[in-house]
Amino acid sequence: xxxxxxxxxxxxxxxxxxxxxSDDISSMxxxxxxxxxxxxxxxxxxxxxxxxxxxxxxxxxELKNQAPCKTHILDCVESNNYKEDERRLHQMxxxxxxxxxxxxxxxxxxxLGLFREYFRVREIYEQKLNVLKDEIVRxxxxxEQEKDKNNIIKVLKDQIDDLEIELDCEKEGNKLLEEIVxxxxxxxxxxxxxxxxxxxxDPRFMYCLKKYTISMIQFDxxxxxxxxxxxxx
Length: 233
Fold this sequence. Notes:
Helix content: 55-70%
Number of helices: 5
Order of helices and strands: EEEHEEHEHEEHH
Shape: rod-shaped
Number of strands: 8
Distance between the termini: 98 Å
C-alpha cells in the first residue's frame, strides 16, 4: 500500500509541495482553522472524496492506513469556515454522489478543477460581501449622525418657538401698558386733576384711581397668562 501527497496544500495563500515541508507548517494548525481536502484512490481514479479535518497531517495518515490501494491527496485548502465549505461542496456535487463523501467525476483533473473553482468564486464573493458590510456600517454611522442633526434641529426649533412666544407676550404686555398709561393721562387731562393737596377726598381723583387700578389688574392677568405659557410657574 502506497500513500502519496501529490498536488498542493494551500495555507493562508502559501502553497506547500508534498509532505517534506510538513514540519515547517505544523505550527500553522490553529484551533480555529480547519481544512477541506480532495482525496483520490487507485484504480478508480474517477472517485474522489471531499472531507474536512482539523489536523490534515493526522487525517492523511489515517487515510493511508485505511486505504486498500494506492491513494493520494489532490488538494487541501485552509478555511475558517471549513464545515460550511464541505456542506456546500457536497450540495454542489449531489448529483455525482456515490456514497457518503465519495463523488464520481469524469477525471481527477475535472474534480480538481471544480474543487479549486469553488474556492476561487468563494473568495471573490467574500471580498464583495466584505465591501457590502463596510458600506452598511458606513451608512449606519451616517444615519446616526443624521438623527443627531435632526434632534439638534428639533431642540433649536423648540427654543425658537419659546422665544417667539415670549416675545409676543412682551409685545402684548408693553402694548397694554402703553394703553393704560395713555388712558390715565387722558383721564387726568380731561378732568384736569392733579395730585390732591387736601387728601384723597376728591371724587374725580378717586374715579381715576379706580380706573387705573382696574387696568393694572387686567395687565397683571395678561402677564400671568404669558408666564404660564412659558412654563415659568
